[in-house]
Structure formats: structure tokens, C-alpha cells
Amino acid sequence: LSVHIQTCRALMVISLLLGFFGIIVSVVGMKCTKVGEEDPVTKSRIAVAGGVLFVLSGLCTLAAVSLYATQVTYEFFRESTIPINARYEFGSALFVGWGAASLSMLGGSLLCCSCPAKERRGQQYHRQAQSSAAREYV
């Protein structure tokens, strides 16, 4: 196979692996699961890590599909002896790839928006309130 096809294949395999690990990490980071830490701040950070993996997976997919589309466009407009009706054109798989990349990046960015900073502030305030109330009763 030519170099650009091997590169696209490698990027898609990397994208699949990143997506698989993103699913596993995101499931562990969900607030409704009992897997892993019980601390909500740690759970949120794990969910953000899953979101980052999804964004990276979407970027790898986008790069692979766009690289292949660039090569198809280059081959189509290059002067050759192949008749125009026998040359490659954009197929539905390219559009599905672009759609999948954009949905993966959108989902990853939504997971990244679960920032733990607000929860941490509320938790610290809650801890201080308990410790000061405990001192008054002692």
C-alpha cells in the first residue's frame, strides 16, 4: 500500500484505541458508578481525562479522513491518462468519518466541561463548617 494509506490506517487504529480507553476512563469517572474513588472531585478529574481521550481520538480521525480526502483531491486534479469518469471521488465513508470525528470531539469537550473546581470549593467549605461546629460542642 502507498504511504498515505498506511498513515491513514495507523491514525485510525490509534483513534480506535484512544476511543476505547476513553470509554473505559469515562465510565469510571461517572458520578453514578461505584467504581474507583468515592470523592466527587477525583471522579470529575477522571471524567475530564476521558474527555481528553475522546478529543484526541476525534482529532486522529479528523486527520486520517482529511489526509485521505486531500490525496483523493490531488489525484483527481492531476493530469494523467486515466479518464475523468474512472477517477476516485469523495464517498460516503469520508463524510461519515468527518461526522464521527466532530461528534467525538463534541462529546469529549462536553466531558471536559465537568470541571471540579466548584465542587472542590463547596467541599472545603463543608469540611470547615463541620470542624468549627464540632469544636463548639466539645
UniProtKB/TrEMBL annotation:
A family per Pfam: PMP22_Claudin
InterPro entries per record: Claudin, PMP22/EMP/MP20/Claudin
Domain of life of the source: Eukaryota
Keywords for this protein: Cell junction, Cell membrane, Membrane, Tight junction, Transmembrane, Transmembrane helix
Signal peptide, first to last residue: none
Family according to the record: Belongs to the claudin family.
Protein name: CLD19 protein
